[in-house]
């Protein structure tokens, strides 16, 4: 990752751009294969990012933009195709069919030229892929999610929700909006919604993928945060989180940093909803996805590779909750 410290920069925003460039960018729809650079500014580093590819899509009239974190590998492509065949399909998602949500993928850069050529072709074929210049890796996931938030602010800032989803998560946007109509979610507050974790121990082993140094975060336990495989940010939360990043050292554990540390700094609410399931590869009790009234409440379920993705989606989408709740 290219970084550059700048202790004399007293800017009050976390993503640094020239005002004229920002104005020009926000006045137009995204263009194909451009090289527009922005910067993600943190207390200890500044990360330059280029939009390498932006789809030509208009967010006008949408209620949510779902941005799925994926990767440029062959397996990543298989995962994206499985998602396109399920909840991103207008055949199976009413919120996609009626343009309530816009669903996109975000992918980092790879030194593998063959993979990137394939991503190039895929992006032009489907028109649903965002590509950024930072290398695609787990440790860079935090940069991808900040870029997704920047995308929302640049092109979709009037859209009520940003759905952050990993590509091994089976997701049900229709259920989310059913629950919103019942008052479970509120677009007017600054909040993150998902499965919240409390008192998670900070990982200090440098070999661990979740490693955090004492310089990055000195406490022994992380603050309450919203689990990373799938969570939802409201449009009021996003600029607060982006703006607060410059005052904190960059923590590479994406969900902890964004929905925990920065959420506390900005008083963004972390609201737990039980039907965001984390690491749930075997479905032994589908009744737990149903309400007492016999309605399917499942929003997301994690840890499904492309091989079982389609089957799992259709099984869960077609649960007979009215029958299940009658069973003892």
Automatic annotation (TrEMBL):
Keywords: Glycosyltransferase, Golgi apparatus, Membrane, Signal-anchor, Transferase, Transmembrane, Transmembrane helix. GO terms for molecular function: hexosyltransferase activity. GO terms for biological process: protein O-linked glycosylation. It is a single-pass type II membrane protein. GO terms for cellular component: Golgi membrane. Its EC number is 2.4.1.-. SUPFAM superfamilies: Nucleotide-diphospho-sugar transferases (SSF53448). It is an enzyme of class 2 (transferase). It is found in: Golgi apparatus membrane. Belongs to the glycosyltransferase 31 family. This is Hexosyltransferase. It comes from Diploscapter pachys. The lineage of its organism: Eukaryota, Metazoa, Ecdysozoa, Nematoda, Chromadorea.
């Amino acid at each position: 990752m290219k970084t550059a410290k700048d202790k004399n920069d007293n800017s009050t925003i976390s993503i640094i751009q020239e005002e004229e460039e920002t104005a020009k960018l926000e006045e137009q729809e995204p263009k194909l294969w451009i090289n527009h650079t922005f910067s993600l500014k943190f207390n200890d580093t500044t990360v330059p990012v280029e939009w390498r590819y932006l789809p030509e899509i208009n967010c006008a009239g949408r209620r949510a933009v779902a941005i799925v974190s994926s990767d440029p590998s062959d397996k990543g492509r298989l995962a994206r195709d499985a998602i396109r065949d399920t909840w991103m399909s207008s055949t199976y998602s009413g919120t996609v069919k009626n343009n309530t949500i816009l669903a996109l993928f975000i992918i980092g850069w790879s030194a593998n030229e063959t993979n990137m050529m394939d991503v190039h072709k895929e992006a032009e074929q489907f028109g649903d892929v965002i590509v950024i210049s930072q290398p695609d890796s787990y440790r860079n996931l935090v940069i991808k999610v900040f870029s997704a938030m920047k995308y929302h602010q640049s092109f979709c800032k009037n859209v009520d929700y940003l759905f952050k989803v990993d590509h091994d998560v089976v997701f049900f946007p229709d259920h989310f909006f059913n629950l919103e109509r019942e008052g479970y979610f509120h677009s007017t507050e600054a909040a993150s919604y998902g499965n919240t974790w409390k008192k998670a121990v900070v990982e200090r082993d440098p070999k661990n993928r979740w490693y955090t140094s004492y310089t990055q975060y000195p406490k022994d336990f992380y603050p309450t945060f919203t689990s990373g495989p799938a969570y939802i940010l409201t449009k009021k939360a996003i600029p607060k989180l982006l703006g607060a990043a410059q005052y904190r050292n960059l923590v590479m554990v994406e969900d902890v940093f964004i929905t925990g540390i920065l959420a506390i700094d900005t008083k963004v609410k972390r609201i737990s909803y039980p039907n965001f399931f984390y690491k749930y590869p075997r479905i032994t009790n589908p009744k737990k996805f149903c309400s007492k009234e016999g309605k399917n409440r499942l929003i997301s379920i994690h840890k499904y590779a492309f091989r079982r993705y389609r089957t799992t989606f259709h099984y869960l989408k077609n649960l007979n909750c009215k029958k299940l709740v009658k069973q003892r």
